[in-house]
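Students often ask what a holo structure prediction actually looks like on paper. The answer is less mysterious than it sounds. You provide the chain, you provide the ligand, and the output is a string of discrete structure tokens encoding the 3D arrangement of the protein together with fe (iii) ion.
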Amino acid sequence: MNREQALEFLQRSLGTGPRYQHSVRVLETAIILAHKYGEDVTKVELAAIFHDYAKLMPIHELKKLLLKAKEDSRLVEYHSELWHGPVAAYLAHREFAVEDKDVLNAIRYHTTGRANMSRLEKIIFLADYIEPQRDFPGIIETRELAEVNLDEAVLKALSNTIAFLLTKRSAIYPDTFAAYNDLIRNTKRLDNQEKSRKS
Ligand code: DGI
Ligand code: FE
Ligand code: FE
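The corresponding structure tokens follow.
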């Protein structure tokens, strides 16, 4: 499936309205990040196009597909906002024969992140967060970090999201914390290495 075919499938699910337009901006942003950080552009395109494929499905449909996909059973205990990524990964595999595990994981984990994210997963997560029409508190700093350091930018986006969820008194899905903890440890380790190199 090429990029144009994938976009056509996406349009069948989302129409051509705001959610489709968001996906196109995520696609454009993710391609820029792919060039900057040396990721396979074809994979990035596929993951970006499908990341919100299931976003407009009714909640009962998402729930049905989650069960069918034999997904993490904890998901149903969390906000339904978290379901569209796993369902999109399931449908990309089942209906559109996307086989690449890394692409499927980038779709699957685009809302929460997780520990040990691949470069592709980080790029999709970040592109979704910083696409040009996004306006979150702290977005400017996240965009600046995205220019220079992929891990620091993802960490910033995760921190912002966690802080936002705290203000809403929302439950926070464990993978979101796992992603944060993993990146905090890695960046601290690099900081310490840098310090001992200089001393
Ligand atoms: O689908 P998009 O709107 O493009 O973006 P997204 O897939 O990142 O979804 C964003 C929403 O998901 C946003 O309202 C924050 C929420 N979210 C992210 N991580 C968590 C979460 N919500 C809960 N309850 N728990 C999380 O861990
Ligand atoms: Fe999403
Ligand atoms: Fe999105």
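The chain has a mean pLDDT of 96.
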